[in-house]
Design a protein that fits this description.
The complex is a heterodimer. By secondary structure, chain A is of the alpha/beta class. Chain A is built from four helices and seven strands. The two termini of chain A are 18 Å apart. The chains are: A alpha/beta, B alpha/beta.
């Protein structure tokens, strides 16, 4: 029996967490959920996920970036593959986010809602 | 009332000591806090530090004139009410002082009652003006907050519902019978149009609020058109429509935001597809002249009645015809016009009922490649 790879989802929208969990579980992943950034950061240490998916827009715009920064600077978080989710960008719906020096490195940006096959393909690619 | 006045500071700038002292005595007795100075520059300094509610300024003073003091102070602080006092009151000086930002002028000599009346009026004017500015700012803020609110509170649940639909398809998609699959498909389509409605509404609101700031770069009209057609190729095949293009070579770039312009063409060509019966044709052409780059989308569709043409760009208007099953946001063409106008372009339509419709979009040639 192979051990399932672990994915941690951090998003304050419980329904979005559930929907995404169903999709990822269908791809054979073990999925852990955190409904706020603080819990998410603790779970990175406890669960040691193989991938974390973080919503950019939690409570205040950019909260997701704080979570990513804290994960990156925490033990074992430096190399953790990270996907950031954006639903709302203040400039308009079609503008994509480019990580820069100001923002912590993320491995991928996906826009909500995410097609099931795109989500699974991305997870497969980042976890390998 | 007395307490309120004690917080209200009046500054008197006049080189005549008797006027300064007289004003101070009268106004302090009425409960105001009063500062005085005999010199214009000192007056400006005091005004900047103490931020008085009302400033009386003598027109004729030795070093700097009252008019100059008014000119400087009026630019400093919009909440300060400025009044010229003068022994040489004339319509001309009054008008000039008002132009420089004074609220009123006040001829010398004056009685204590007159001074009290003018001061009271100034303070009332000040509260009204401050209230107006506050309300205006609040209104702008509300508008901005509403846009931000809608963008989060409407997009988030929509995205979540769409994500659930994705999950449902993954979990149960294979086990659904054809009716179940059709229900899922119909839900997805309605969700998609609701999302488009929200996005169009947001874009229109942003343009109206003056906060539409997309990337402006030199974009190529022919590649815009080809990308738009590409997005709609499945729909056109499904509707059994042929699409032809006639795009002039070497079109100059236009200054614009590529994504929004693609949305515009997808909308226009999509409309043509929706309102053209099977077997019809959509022809798209693009060309240029000395000043403009122009693109036209013509169809062999049902056309638009002449009396409806003026209103099709209005928000939430949709041409209703018998058996019309088209589902749209009702904001598509409003969105197109707003976006085109934000690019300093124009959008026009000609149509003959039963024969077809032509939309023409016209943009100024880009500066970079002129």
């Amino acid at each position: 029996m192979t051990v399932k790879k672990k994915i941690l989802l951090i998003d304050d929208d419980k329904d979005f967490l559930m929907a995404t969990k169903f999709i990822l579980e269908s791809g054979g992943y073990e999925v852990f959920l955190a409904e706020d950034g603080k819990t998410g950061i603790e779970m990175v240490k406890e669960v040691r996920p193989d991938l974390a998916i973080v919503d950019m827009m939690m409570e205040t715009w950019g909260e997701g970036f704080n979570v990513v920064s804290k994960v990156r600077s925490s033990e074992g978080g430096k190399e953790l593959p990270l996907i950031i989710l954006s639903a709302v960008d203040l400039q308009g719906p079609y503008q994509s986010f480019e990580p820069s020096d100001e923002f912590p490195r993320v491995d991928m940006v996906l826009h909500k809602p995410i097609k099931a096959d795109e989500l699974l393909r991305s997870a497969d690619r980042l976890i390998k | 009332m007395m307490d309120e006045r004690a917080d209200t500071l009046v500054l008197v700038i006049d080189d005549e000591a008797s006027i300064r002292d007289g004003c101070a005595q009268v106004l302090e007795k009425s409960g105001y806090r009063v500062l005085t100075t005999g010199e214009g520059l000192a007056g400006i300094q005091i005004a900047r530090q103490e931020k008085p509610a009302v400033v009386f300024v003598d027109l004729k003073m030795p070093s700097i004139s009252g008019m100059e003091v008014i000119d400087i102070l009026s630019k400093d602080n919009p909440d300060m009410v400025l009044v010229i006092i003068t022994g040489y009151a004339s319509i001309i000086t009054a008008v000039e002082a008002m132009k420089k930002g004074a609220y009123d002028y006040f001829p010398k000599p004056f009685t204590p009652d007159q001074l009290r009346a003018v001061t009271k009026r100034c303070i009332e004017h000040r509260s009204l003006a401050m209230e107006t500015r506050r309300l205006r700012k609040e209104k702008e803020q509300v508008q901005q907050n509403f846009i931000t609110f809608v963008s989060h509170e409407m997009r988030s649940p929509l995205a979540t519902i769409q994500q659930y639909m994705e999950a449902l398809t993954v979990i149960a998609g294979e086990s659904l019978n054809s009716e179940g699959k059709e229900i899922v498909e119909r839900c997805n389509r309605r969700l998609q149009s609701l999302c488009e409605l929200v996005e169009h509404w947001l874009d229109i609101s942003r343009i109206e609020a003056g906060i539409f700031n997309r990337k402006m770069e030199s974009v190529n009209l022919s590649s815009l058109i080809l990308k738009s057609i590409d997005e709609l190729s499945a729909l056109c095949r499904q509707c059994e429509l042929s699409v032809t293009t006639e795009i002039a070579e070497g079109l100059p770039g236009i200054e614009g935001d590529e994504e929004s312009l693609i949305r515009v063409f997808v909308n226009i060509i999509g409309n043509a597809a929706k309102y053209t019966p099977a077997g019809g044709r959509i022809s798209i052409s693009a060309g240029q002249d000395e000043y403009y780059v122009t693109a036209s989308v013509s169809d062999t569709g049902i056309g638009i009645a002449p009396d409806k043409i003026p209103v099709i760009f209005e928000p939430f208007y949709r041409v209703k015809t018998k058996g019309d099953t088209q589902k749209g946001s009702g904001l598509g063409l409003t969105f197109c016009r707003k976006i085109v106008e934000a690019h300093e372009g124009t959008i026009d339509v000609t149509s003959v009922e039963g024969e077809g419709t032509t939309f023409t979009v016209c943009f100024p040639r880009g500066h970079s490649r002129r």
